[in-house]
Design brief:
This protein has 152 residues and is an all-alpha fold. The chain has one domain (2-147). It contains four helices and no strands. The chain has helices at 2-34, 39-73, 82-112, 117-147. The longest helix is centred in the middle third of the chain and has 35 residues, at 39-73. The radius of gyration is 18 Å and the shape is elongated. The model has no long low-confidence stretch (mean pLDDT 95).
Length: 152
């Protein structure tokens, strides 16, 4: 049981980093959006390209790997249970929005460098909408993990 507890700890920690890190990025992005200095948006974009691969990507991978390990390690859980299927489906949505949409918008945002204020604000607005979707999905996953629909 000690292995299960360690993997569970890693799963929760990685989820906290993904959700908490993303929430902080949204607040920083909103602050940059409200700034009168267009270069503030460029600085935010450079922060994204630094933090994404160093903080968020490892957290996403950690959540996935530890989640699969938890199901495999426990006799009580299996991949046919509703709450596990819901979690996998929602994870796929959050991952795809991040990998396909947000990464592309972040690259465009970084290329704009805050030089064109209108374009930078538009791209930042698109990023904020996308990451708000990801955060909403992550909150749904957290609720799924806690309430485990379909488990008596």
């Amino acid at each position: 049981m000690i292995l299960y507890d360690l993997v569970l700890f890693g799963h929760i920690l990685a989820a906290m980093v993904w959700l908490g890190g993303g929430l902080m990025l949204v607040f920083v992005a909103r602050r940059a959006r409200a700034s009168d200095d267009p270069h503030t948006i460029g600085e935010f974009a450079r922060s994204l390209s630094y933090l994404g691969p160093r903080v968020l990507a490892p957290a996403v991978i950690g959540v996935l790997v530890s989640g699969v390990a938890l199901v495999l390690e426990s006799a009580a859980w299996d991949f046919a249970q509703a709450w596990v299927l819901i979690a996998i489906g929602l994870f796929a949505v959050a991952f795809l929005v991040g990998a396909v949409y947000l990464s592309r918008v972040a690259l465009q945002l970084e290329r704009s460098g805050g030089n064109d204020a209108t374009l930078s604000r538009s791209l930042l607005d698109r990023w904020l909408i996308g990451y708000t979707v990801v955060l909403s999905v992550l909150v749904l996953i957290a609720a799924d993990m806690v309430f485990k629909p379909g488990v008596a």
